[in-house]
Amino acid sequence: MSAERTFIMIKPDGVQRGLVGQIVQRFEQRGYKLVSMKFTQPTKELLEEHYADLKQKGFFPSLIAYMLSGPVVPMVWEGKDVVKQGRQMLGQTNPLASLPGSIRGDFSIDIGRNICHGSDSVDSAQKEIALWFKETELTQWKSSTHEWVY
Ligand code: RTP
């Protein structure tokens, strides 16, 4: 059985505030394996598909405008329970409900500027990875560090 993967994306505010390194570092330090990462300006069409389940929400237009406001860093991380643990590392959707120690709890105070996205289930992780990455962009590699983690 292949290892669990999740889709994590640093949003435009996370990039513009210079938080990319710190966010990547948290996943590396925890012991998760980076499978793929890119720096890209997403199209409106891609963002509307990514957030298709929120289309009826009143905040949808402002969410799309926020996500279009600059480049983002989509990533794929792999390892034990990474979908659930990744969401915990991010914190709650509303940063004010996020505990200190989580990314949102440490770096943000506004729900409309909450720095990062993380898949909410294994199923949505698979869909989001397929939406943002080509199969050939998903690397296969082994890390000696992970022999210590696992
Ligand atoms: P994400 O998809 O970005 O990881 O966030 P999430 O699952 O924690 O939350 P979701 O309900 O899927 O919302 C997606 C993003 O929409 C923005 N949002 N604004 N009331 C509001 O103004 C509101 N609610 C949600 C946030 O940027 C949220 O991350």
Keywords:
single chain; 4-stranded antiparallel beta sheet; 150 residues; binds ribavirin triphosphate; alpha+beta
Reading side by side through the largest sheet, how are the strands ordered? Answer: 2-3-1-4
Number of strands: 4
Which regions contain 5 or more consecutive residues with pLDDT less than 50?
none
Nearest-integer average pLDDT? 97
Q: Tell me the overall shape.
A: globular
Binned strand content? 5-15%
C-alpha Rg, in Å? Answer: 15 Å
Number of distinct helices? 8
Helix content class = 40-55%
Task: Give the end-to-end Cα distance, rounded to a whole number of Å.
Answer: 15 Å
Distinct small-molecule ligands in the complex: ribavirin triphosphate
Main sheet overview: 4 strands, antiparallel
Structural class: alpha+beta
Order of helices and strands: EHHEHHEHHEHH
Give the helix/strand layout.
Elements: E1 5-10, H1 12-16, H2 20-30, E2 33-37, H3 44-50, H4 60-67, E3 73-78, H5 82-90, H6 103-107, E4 116-118, H7 122-132, H8 144-149
Antiparallel strand pairs: 1-3, 1-4, 2-3
Please give a quick description of this structure.
With 150 residues, this protein is α+β, with helices and mostly antiparallel strands. It is 41% helix and 13% strand.
What does this structure look like?
There is one protein chain. The protein is of the alpha+beta class. Helix content is 41%, strand content 13%. The protein has a 4-stranded antiparallel β-sheet. The model has no long low-confidence stretch (mean pLDDT 97). The structure holds ribavirin triphosphate. Residues 54, 59, 63, 93, 111-112, 114, 117-118, 120 line the site of ribavirin triphosphate.
